[in-house]
Design brief:
Helices cover 36% and strands 21% of the residues. With 645 residues, it is α+β, with helices and mostly antiparallel strands. The protein folds into 4 domains: 16-20 and 141-262, 2-Layer Sandwich (Killer Toxin P4, Chain A); 26-138, Killer Toxin P4, Chain A (2-Layer Sandwich), CATH 3.30.430; 296-400, Phosphorylase Kinase, domain 1 (2-Layer Sandwich), CATH 3.30.200.20; 408-639, Transferase(Phosphotransferase), domain 1, CATH 1.10.510.10. It starts with a helix and ends in a 6-residue tail after the last strand.
Length: 645
C-alpha cells in the first residue's frame, strides 16, 4: 500500500500542473454613450424586465427598443430561480463594467457553475443571425501534462465525444424553446467520467448551430487545450466539458468535491491498472459475446471482416423467412446489381434486404466494398448496415428499413412533390450535406461516395435523408486529396466533368454531385429533363447569367421565401463549377446553408457532361441498370470500374 501511494503521488506530480486560470466573463465593445442618454435609459428599461421575460419565454428572449437590442439565454436544464439570478447577476456586471458602452456580452453563472446564462446588448439586430464573436472563455485552473503518452489516446476519445455531442446538439427534437442541446457523459481510458455540454440559441438554423459549435471547439483546441476542462461562450452557442458532473445529472457530485486529485485519481489508477487487465477483460468480453450469439434463436452469428471490424453475419434461411422467400410482394426496389426486399426479423425488426445478382463479378466487388466501409461508418444521415450474408453464390446486404423509399420517388413525382415544402427540402439538403461532410472530414476514414444522386438518398419516417449505396465509394488516406482511376464509376449527369473526361476524382466530385441534387430539389425536376439544353447545371447557369434564376424554382414553392431559395441556387452553382479549385468543401457549404449573412463568392461557369468519352464502354451491370438493353437512361445508368479497390 505504501509503495502504491508513492507511485500514485509521483504519477500525479508528473501528470498534473497547477496553472492560474484565465477567466473572461464579460466583454465591452463599441463606442461609448453619455450618462443618462436615451440609449442608457432604453437599455435599462429592457433590463428591468429581462430576467422575468427569459423564464416566462422558456429560457430565451430578445427585445428591441429604439435602436437598443438585448438578448438573454439560459442553459436548457435551468431552474427558474437559477436562471433569474444568473441573468440579473449578468445585468449587474454589465452595468458595472460596461456602464457606458454601446455593446456588451456577459457569459456568466450562478453559484460558481460556469456558463449557465448569457446576456448581450448591441446597437444592431442580432436575432436569427449566426454570431461567432466576441468570445469569452472560462478554463479549468488545472492542467494536464500533454506530453504524457496517454494523451494521444485521450485526444482521440475527446474528439469522438465532441462529434457525438455536436450530433446530439444539432438535432431539433425538442418541443421546448431551447431546442439545440446536447449533454454527453463518457468513460475514457485515462479518466473514469468525462462530461460535455453544447447548446445553441434557438433562433439560428441547425447548420448555423453546428458551425458555431465547431468554431467554439476550434477556439478551445487553439487557446485552452491541456486544461482539465472549461467553457467557451460565443453569442450564438456555448460549449463546456469537465471531469466532473456540472450540469446536474448526478446531484451528489459537488464542485467542492471536484479537486484536481479526485478528478484524476481514477484516471491515474486506470493508466497503471488497465494495461495489466486489458487482455483478460477483452477475453471475457469475447466469450460472453460468443455465448450470447450462440444462444440466439434468430440465426445471427458474428464474423470478423477483412477490415478488422466485427460484423453480423446473418443466416440465409433466416433471410428467406424474413422476406417470405423473396416474394414479389416484398420487393421494394431494383438496381443495377440486384433487387431490394422488405423483410421482418423474428424479433419484429423491419429490414431492407439487398440481394445482389448471382454470379455478378461487379456485384462481388460492390458487396465487399459496402461491407468494409459501412461497418466503420455511423451517422444519422447515412443508411445503417445491420448485417450481411454470403452463402454459396448468394451475396446479401441487410440494412435498416427506411419507410419512405428514396428521394427521387418524391421530388420527381407531380403529386408527391406537393408535400415537400421548402422547410422540408431545406432539411433534406442540409442532411445530405452533413452526411457528405462526415464522409469527407469527420469520420475516421475519408470516403468519396462517387454515386450521389436522388435515388441513393433514402427518407426515413420523418423525411430525414440517409445517403445509401456505397458500392462505388473509394477510401482515401486522411492526407490524400485526389486520385486517378482506370475507369469511371457513377451516374452520368451527376458525375463531375473532370472525372468523366480525365478520370480524376476527389471530394470535389462529390461536391459537384451534391450541387446537381440541390438544383433538382429546387426545380423539382431531374437532371435528365434538361439534357436538351446540356443539363441542369448548364441551364441554371444560363438563367443566372440572364438574371432569370428565379424562373427555375419549382412552382410548388411559390409561397416560400424566394430570397432564401435564390441563395440556395447560388450555392448549388458554386458546387457545380467547371473549375474544381473554386468548388467549396462540404464544411463551407454547410456554413453557407446555415447563414444568410456570410458573404458567398460569385459562381463561375458550370461544368457539365452529357456524353461519355468514346473509350469508355458500358458494362453488363450498367445494362441492367438501364432497365432494358439497347436504351439509355441517363439518370440511372451507372458506370463502374472492374478493378478491386
Amino acid at each position: 500500500m505504501k509503495n502504491s501511494a508513492i507511485l500514485l503521488t509521483s504519477s500525479l506530480i508528473f501528470l498534473l500542473q497547477t496553472l492560474q486560470g484565465v477567466k473572461g466573463g464579460f466583454i465591452c465593445i463599441g463606442s461609448s454613450f453619455p450618462t443618462n442618454s436615451s440609449y442608457q435609459k432604453n437599455r435599462d428599461s429592457l433590463f428591468s424586465t429581462l430576467s422575468d421575460k427569459v423564464t416566462t419565454n422558456g429560457g430565451f428572449y430578445n427585445a428591441s427598443l429604439n435602436g437598443v437590442h438585448v438578448l438573454a439565454f439560459c442553459r436548457r436544464d435551468y431552474e427558474r430561480q437559477g436562471c433569474i439570478d444568473c441573468v440579473e447577476k449578468s445585468i449587474r456586471q454589465i452595468k458595472t463594467n460596461c456602464s457606458n458602452r454601446v455593446e456588451s456580452f456577459n457569459c456568466d453563472s450562478n453559484d460558481g457553475d460556469r456558463v449557465s446564462c448569457f446576456v448581450r446588448t448591441t446597437n444592431h439586430l442580432t436575432y436569427r443571425k449566426l454570431e461567432l464573436g466576441p468570445a469569452t472563455n472560462d478554463p479549468s485552473p488545472y492542467a494536464i501534462d500533454t506530453s504524457a503518452k496517454n494523451m494521444t489516446l485521450f485526444r482521440q476519445e475527446w474528439g469522438a465525444m465532441v462529434d457525438r455531442t455536436i450530433e446530439a446538439a444539432t438535432i431539433d427534437t425538442s418541443t421546448t424553446v431551447l431546442k439545440y442541446y446536447g449533454a454527453v457523459k463518457a468513460e475514457f481510458t485515462e479518466f473514469p467520467n468525462v462530461y460535455m455540454m453544447m447548446q445553441c440559441t434557438p433562433d439560428i438554423t441547425s447548420g448555423a448551430c453546428k458551425g458555431c459549435l465547431q468554431e467554439s471547439i476550434t477556439y478551445f483546441r487553439e487557446q485552452l487545450w491541456g486544461r482539465q476542462g472549461g467553457g467557451v461562450c460565443l453569442p450564438s452557442c456555448v460549449f463546456r466539458w469537465e471531469l466532473y458532473d456540472f450540469y446536474g445529472a448526478f446531484a451528489n457530485v459537488t464542485r467542492a468535491q471536484a479537486t484536481s486529485i479526485t478528478r484524476l485519481k481514477g484516471g491515474i489508477i486506470a493508466i497503471f491498472v488497465v494495461p495489466i487487465f486489458i487482455n483478460l477483460i477483452v477475453f471475457i468480453g469475447l466469450i460472453k459475446a460468443y455465448n450470447r450469439i450462440r444462444k440466439s434463436n434468430n440465426g445471427i452469428n458474428e464474423q470478423q471482416c477483412d477490415s478488422g471490424e466485427s460484423m453480423l453475419r446473418l443466416d440465409f434461411r433466416m433471410i428467406l423467412i424474413a422476406t417470405d422467400d423473396f416474394s414479389s410482394e416484398n420487393k421494394i426496389g431494383q438496381g443495377g446489381f440486384g433487387s431490394v426486399y422488405k423483410g421482418i426479423l423474428p424479433g419484429g425488426q423491419e429490414i431492407a434486404v439487398k440481394r445482389l445478382a448471382r454470379g455478378s463479378g461487379q456485384g462481388d466487388v460492390e458487396f465487399k466494398n459496402e461491407v468494409l466501409l459501412l461497418t466503420r461508418l455511423q451517422h444519422r444521415n447515412l443508411v445503417k448496415l445491420l448485417g450481411f450474408c454470403n452463402e454459396g453464390d448468394e451475396e446479401i446486404l441487410v440494412y435498416e428499413f427506411v419507410p419512405n423509399s428514396s428521394l427521387d420517388n418524391f421530388i420527381f413525382d407531380e403529386e408527391k412533390r406537393l408535400i415537400l415544402t421548402w422547410d422540408m427540402r431545406f432539411r433534406i439538403i442540409e442532411g445530405v450535406a452533413r452526411g457528405l461532410l462526415y464522409l469527407h472530414e469527420d469520420s475516421q476514414l475519408r470516403i468519396i461516395h462517387r454515386d450521389l444522386k436522388a435515388s441513393n438518398i433514402l427518407l426515413d419516417a420523418d423525411m430525414n435523408p440517409k445517403i445509401s449505396d456505397f458500392g462505388m465509394a473509394r477510401l482515401f488516406n486522411m492526407d490524400q486529396t485526389r486520385a486517378v482511376t482506370r475507369k469511371v464509376a457513377g451516374t452520368l449527369g451527376y458525375m463531375a466533368p473532370e472525372y468523366v473526361k480525365n478520370k480524376r476524382f476527389s471530394v470535389k466530385t462529390d461536391v459537384y454531385s451534391f450541387g446537381v441534387v440541390l438544383l433538382e430539389m429546387i426545380t423539382g425536376r431531374s437532371n435528365k429533363s434538361y439534357f436538351e439544353s446540356l443539363g441542369l447545371p448548364a441551364y441554371a447557369w444560363k438563367c443566372w447569367l440572364a438574371g432569370e434564376a428565379a424562373s427555375i424554382i419549382d412552382h410548388v414553392l411559390s409561397r416560400s421565401s424566394t430570397t432564401e431559395i435564390m441563395r440556395f441556387i447560388h450555392i448549388g452553382l458554386l458546387c457545380v463549377q467547371e473549375n474544381v479549385a473554386k468548388r467549396p468543401t462540404m464544411s463551407l457549404v454547410i456554413q453557407w446553408l446555415g447563414s444568410d449573412i456570410i458573404a458567398i463568392p460569385l459562381p463561375t461557369a458550370a461544368g457539365f457532361t452529357t456524353h461519355l468519352p468514346v473509350e469508355l464502354h458500358r458494362t453488363d451491370a450498367s445494362n441492367q441498370a438501364e432497365g432494358r438493353a439497347g436504351t439509355s437512361s441517363l439518370n440511372k445508368l451507372s458506370f463502374t470500374e472492374l478493378s478491386p479497390r
